[in-house]
Write a structure and sequence with these properties.
By secondary structure, the chain is an alpha/beta fold. It contains 2 helices and 5 strands; from the N terminus they run E-E-E-H-E-H-E.
């Protein structure tokens, strides 16, 4: 089945072609921080290693978009939640 075959894109090789698109869940903590609810939601989706790529929900990329310097810690935790089951994390 084609969706189960690996896919190479430049230097990346995805273990399969099943990608989860970005979805706005609005489960972030007050102030736009990644919290336990967001992390558990993504861990649940990548559990079992069935996804080749997981694109995280919307992120703020400028000061006008409510980004804060300390948001990076939560985003790193979110990326690690994807990689635990070998899914690439996309933004």
């Amino acid at each position: 089945m084609l969706c189960q075959e690996s896919l190479r894109a430049g230097s990346l090789e995805f273990k399969n072609r099943i990608f989860m698109p970005a979805m706005a869940t609005y489960k972030d903590e007050p102030g736009g921080f990644v919290g336990d609810i967001t992390l558990s939601q993504y861990r649940e989706r990548v559990a079992g290693g069935n996804l080749g790529l997981v694109v995280s929900e919307h992120l703020y990329v400028s000061a006008r978009g409510r980004a804060r310097d300390n948001h990076g810690v939560g985003r790193a935790l979110l990326a690690n939640a994807h990689w635990a089951d070998e899914a690439f994390a996309g933004v």
